Amino acid sequence: MSETQTFSLDGEDVPFAPGQTVMQAAQAAGRWIPHLCWHPDFEAHGSCKLCTVRANGRLVAACTVAAQPGMAVENRTPDLDGRRQTLLQMLFVEGNHFCPSCEKSGNCLLQATAYEMGMMTPHFDMFYPDRPVDASHPETLLDFNRCILCALCVRASRDADGKNVFALSGRGIRSHLIVNHESGRLADTDFAATDRAANICPVGVILPKRRGFAVPIGRRKYDPAPASVVDVVPVKHEEEAR
Amino acid sequence: MSGKLRVATTSLAGCFGCHMSFLDIDERLLTLLEVVEFDRSPITDIKEVGQCDLGIIEGGVCNAENVHVLREFRKHCKTLVAMGACAVNGGLPAQRNHLDLRDILEEVYHTELGLAHGGIPNDPELPLPLNKVHPIHEVVKVDYFLPGCPPPADAIWKFLTDLVAGRTPHLAHGLLHYD
Ligand code: SF4
Ligand code: SF4
Ligand code: FES
User: What is the largest CA-CA distance in chain A?
Assistant: First the structure.
């Protein structure tokens, strides 16, 4: 049996198995690295850069960089959290995030991460883009105003549902989410409300119809505690048990 | 001089919900009045803002008068606070921003079913609407932001007591929210 390898995360040792990313190892150790496009069940996308940490002095995405023995990783430093806040502010001004009328409010990872970073203002000038919703599907609504282009729905539909309902299209500031059909309408695809892709969006884009604000304020996911507490999986001490 | 901090408040393109939430600090208002006095505010009905230590703005800007009042506040207040979602990011009124202003006015005052087809109001007393609604930081420099729709009374209390004590306001989990 080989000795457990470790790297340090904000000064504390984190064990890892060869091949694990910094994000995977941190998650397994019950440590929180802010993230938006990463999800434990899917291949890393490395696009939102919220998970940017400083590893041995260099800025890298924790969800794509492989853990190395002895690596010194900084995570929740004022400098890195400040950069994260700036990224969040850009996401907020780029879309239309009107939380008071969003059914995802209180359960939204973007919002919860912004709270965690202490974001008090979007700071930049608002874009107020025009992004019509797609209400064609009988059970599911698409409100593109809130899309942060994390591509989780793209990956879930392709890799878990085997359907390829969603895709990212365009480049740079014109990047946007599309529905993979000539008509562009969700109703014309083989999408089903039971798909993994129907329940993966970290923000309020892919929403079930006729549910509304079902959970009262106070009992939503991030009401009792911040994301850094709620989203941390309790550590299983498998290492010791072995 | 009384030695008290002079505070002005106003509602621009807002619904007065933030002011209502402010009043929700209830009897703590009396504690606050030991250290502050109000200048222009819906509480005093003073119409023009004077020299103040603190200005609190509810609502974004949706018309020319909002811009005027906001600039007056900036000119007269040492510290300016954006209170509530509308002041911070445009909020509900900004939900019209992807629509054409003329189309909106036509529909609301003219073509909508059940209207008397009176036409778009153009009384010179009415402030001209802006093409788009803007949060106040796009028009003047804003020193502090207090989000929430509305911010809860406890958040307003914490924010103000921090400011009055000369601390950078800090809202813990549960007090900072955007909805
Ligand atoms: S998706 Fe999240 S951040 Fe955007 S409006 Fe909804 S709750 Fe707010
Ligand atoms: S719809 Fe949701 S899951 Fe899909 S890319 Fe946009 S934010 Fe991500
Ligand atoms: S979570 Fe790593 S880049 Fe998005």
Answer: 58
CB atoms within 10 A of CB A61: 24
Min Cα distance B118 → chain A (Å) is 30
pLDDT digits 0-9 by tens, A2-15: 568 999 999 999 99
pLDDT at B92 over 60: yes
Cα B64 to Cα B134: distance, rounded to the nearest angstrom: 12
Q: Which helix (H) or strand (E) holds B8?
A: strand B5-11
Q: Give the position, in ligand 3's atom list, of the atom nearest the Cα of A34.
A: 1
pLDDT at residue number A237: 52
Query: Which residues in A lie closer than 8 A to residue B82 (C-beta atoms)?
Result: 121
Task: Give the CATH number of domain A81-215; options: 3.30.565.10, 3.40.440.10, 3.30.70.20, 3.30.420.40.
Answer: 3.30.70.20
Strand partners, B82: B57, B145
| ipTM of this predicted structure | 0.94
CA distance A181 to A165: 8
A148 ligand 2 Cβ < 6 A: yes
Just give the CATH number of B5-94+131-164.
3.40.50.700
pTM here is 0.95
Whether the CB-CB separation of B6 and B39 falls below 8 Å is answered with yes
**Listed residue (A87, A85, A35) closest to A62, CA to CA:** A35
The alpha carbon of A161 and the centre of ligand 2 are apart by a number of angstroms equal to 16
> Between 3.10.20.740, 3.40.630.30, 3.90.1170.50, 3.90.215.10, what CATH number should domain A5-76 receive?
3.10.20.740
User: Which of B98, B130, B158, B179 to probe by mutation at the A interface, max A CB count within 10 Å?
Assistant: B179
